[in-house]
Amino acid sequence: MPRVKEFDEDEVLTKAMHLFWAQGYEKTSINDLVENMGIHRRSLYDTFGDKHQLFLKVIDRYCKTLLGHFDSGVTRAKSAKEALRFLFDYMVEGNEEKPLGCLLVNMAVELAPWDPEVDVMAEESFDRTEQLIAGLIRKGQENGEFATTHDASELAANIHNTMVGLRVLARTSADKEKLYRIADFTMAMLNA
Q1: What is the pLDDT of residues 15-32, one digit of tens each?
Q2: pLDDT band for position 1 (cuts 50, 70, 90)
Q3: How far is CA 188 from CA 60, 85, 106, 146, in A?
Q4: Measured between alpha carbons, how far is 108 from 66 in angstroms, rounded to an integer?
Q5: At residue 165, does pLDDT exceed 90?
Q6: Which residues fall within 8 angstroms of residue 45, CB to CB, at 6 or more apart?
């Protein structure tokens, strides 16, 4: 007779996500995960596989949650400019309940150079975000909010690069005023 799980899989996966986010992949041991998730080592392996498989599930969940949050904020915005401002505000402010920075950016820097699966996940997520930004820029160009002197895809690549940089800076002691100045300067490019 199979054993009944004595934990909420969603809840323990969220705990693992926060631990990887705060410590990084390499510094997070199986013992750290077991202790933080509040489950037995055997349950971790039976439910999630090894540490790497667990990490991939965490990244998948994080990407879906992040893109869902982006889509929700963009949908509520009354204009393309407001939607882009929402994305920049998120890059600077993040979410109060989460560790600093962006788990996806952290993982891309730490693991993508040597882990093909992580590299693909990071690239796909970055591409989706860049496409979201390009769509907003096109919308803003069509309705006159943004200048049409530059290609929307090229602007989106540059803006996304700035957003990734903001998420890195958000992990440091850089003050938010500086981060908002960077965001404002980047938004001003859309009017040039």
Answers
A1: 999 999 999 999 999 999
A2: very low
A3: 33, 11, 27, 9
A4: 15
A5: yes
A6: none
Q: d(Cα 20, Cα 57) in Å, to the nearest integer? A: 12
Q: What is the DSSP letter of 78?
A: S
Whether residue 111 contacts residue 155, with contact meaning beta carbons closer than 8 Å, is answered with: no
Pair 37, 51: CB distance under 8 Å: no
Cα 137 from Cα 154, distance rounded (Å) = 10
pLDDT digits (tens, 9 = 90+) for 123-140: 999 999 999 999 999 999
CATH of domain 56-191: 1.10.357.10
Under a CB-based contact definition with an 8 Å cutoff, are residues 89 and 7 in contact? no
Which residues does 168 contact at the CB level (< 8 Å), separation at least 6? 101, 105, 109
138, two tokens: 């096109």
What is the pTM assigned to this prediction? 0.88
Per-residue burial over 13-52, b if 16 or more Cβ lie within 10 Å, else e, is bbbbbebbbbeebeebeeeebbebbebeeebbeebbeebe
Q: Spell out the domain ranges in the chain.
A: 56-191
Q: Is the dihedral of CA 4, 8, 10, 16 positive or negative?
A: negative
Neighbour-count burial of 62, counting CB atoms closer than 10 A to its CB (0-12 exposed, 13-18 middle, 19+ buried)? buried
